[in-house]
Design the sequence.
């Protein structure tokens, strides 16, 4: 079977194994074009693999989006409270339908969506929420904004996701929820996390900020736990510059989310609880609505290209694409990530490897320089009056001392990735360029190590 003969179903079926490398069980060779990579490295003066070629632009823009913004501008309906049938309420219905959820509340950002959920669940000062150190600061900001304690558990170093065993180890009498983060748009180990939550009677909030349309065990990420949150920041695979959304099937809980995000004012028009003003505006919703029609096709293309790229890299011992958990049938591929093993590259450090690949015309980069467990907020909160009044000195000391996540440190040091929202919309030849650049550097690793 030739690469182009693989159907979408075959690609996505292959992705359900522990790694997308399963697709390489076809006749796709790991080293398809030896002559193309046999020359001198570009960093040493050779001809680059990819020269004067761009990538698909991101964020995605077309006339439909431009027309939608113009229409919204002319309508004079710029805020969701002006119309029950405006672009925000319409987007909420369409996004919920697309994702297979009953209800949606749109917010101004993914961080706002997460904080809204924390407040709606009644999590506050004195409570603890377990989450990942390997994520955007917005994840912990949503917990800190409620004056709860973000407890960081370590990672599975192959998947870059929360390690369920370490999550369970960190549960205390004050733990109220677990907030798994679907990193790179791939599923966390939700089966085990949900089982832990049931066993300890904890809530689960899915941070699916990067995981639009991704599927796990027959359901889309963000719809498996009672509450799931998304971001529409400009780099995301569905984007509006900023913006967020909450999905859920429990009408009462989602009504609480609406009330919280609407400065504590319910749909009944009564100010009932404490709440910030987190409403999405009509312009963001217009941009989002206009691109939903093509979102699934772009999602399909990213998955097919990612499968092809993983198959091409299968035989290279120096790079290991992100591990996927059983039941993962597709990912958003917000990022295409891999671990770099310098010992397989004759000790060449990651920075030099990335520079060599860049010289071949392919830009890879690290992602998160250091985990959140190594950022100054940890020392800051244990010194604040709010946390000192809420938690005992012993608990704060323990919290600080247990802020150790060695697997996260390893991931930060080893991971390399492609910003995939745009590039993974390229052609199969573009994917071959990426693979060939990496494989060329690997085959010339002795020369790279010598400089």
Sequence:
């Amino acid at each position: 079977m030739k690469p182009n003969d693989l159907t979408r179903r075959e690609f996505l079926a292959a992705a359900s194994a522990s790694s997308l490398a399963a697709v390489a069980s076809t006749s796709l060779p790991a080293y398809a074009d030896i002559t193309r990579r046999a020359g001198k490295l570009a960093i040493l003066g050779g001809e680059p693999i990819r020269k004067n070629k761009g990538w698909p632009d991101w964020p995605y823009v077309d006339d439909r989006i431009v027309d939608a913004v113009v229409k919204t501008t002319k309508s004079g309906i710029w805020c969701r409270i002006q119309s029950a049938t405006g672009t925000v309420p319409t987007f909420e219905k369409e996004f919920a339908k697309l994702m297979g959820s009953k209800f949606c509340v749109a917010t101004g950002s993914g961080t706002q969506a997460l904080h809204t959920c924390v407040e709606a669940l009644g999590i506050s000062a004195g409570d603890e929420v377990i989450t990942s150190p390997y994520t955007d600061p917005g994840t912990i900001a949503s917990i800190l904004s409620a004056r709860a304690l973000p407890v960081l558990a370590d990672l599975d170093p192959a998947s870059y996701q929360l390690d369920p065993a370490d999550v369970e180890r960190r549960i205390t009498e004050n733990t109220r929820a677990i907030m798994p983060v679907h990193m790179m748009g791939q599923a966390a180990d939700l089966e085990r996390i949900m089982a832990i939550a049931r066993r300890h009677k904890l809530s689960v909030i899915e941070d699916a900020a990067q995981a639009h349309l991704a599927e796990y065990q027959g359901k889309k990420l963000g719809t498996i736990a009672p509450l799931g949150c998304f971001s529409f920041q400009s780099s995301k695979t569905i984007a509006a510059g900023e913006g967020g959304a909450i999905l859920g099937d429990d009408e009462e809980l989602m009504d609480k989310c609406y009330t919280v995000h609407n400065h504590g004012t319910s749909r009944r028009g009564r100010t009932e609880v404490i709440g910030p003003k987190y409403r999405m505006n009509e312009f963001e919703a217009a941009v989002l609505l206009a691109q939903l029609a093509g979102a699934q096709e772009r999602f399909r293309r990213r998955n097919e290209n990612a499968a092809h790229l993983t198959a091409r890299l299968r035989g290279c011992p120096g790079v290991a694409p992100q591990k996927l958990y059983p039941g993962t049938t597709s990912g958003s591929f917000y990022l295409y990530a891999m671990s770099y093993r310098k010992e397989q590259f004759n000790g060449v450090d990651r920075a030099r490897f990335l520079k060599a690949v860049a010289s071949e015309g392919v830009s890879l980069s690290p992602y998160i320089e250091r985990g959140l467990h190594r950022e100054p907020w940890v020392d800051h909160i244990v010194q604040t009056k709010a946390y000192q009044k809420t938690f005992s000195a012993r608990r704060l000391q323990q919290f600080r001392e247990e802020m150790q996540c060695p697997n996260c440190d390893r991931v930060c040091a080893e991971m390399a990735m492609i910003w995939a929202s745009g590039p993974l919309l390229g052609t199969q030849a573009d994917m071959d360029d990426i693979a060939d650049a990496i494989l060329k550097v690997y085959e010339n690793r002795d020369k790279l190590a010598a400089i």
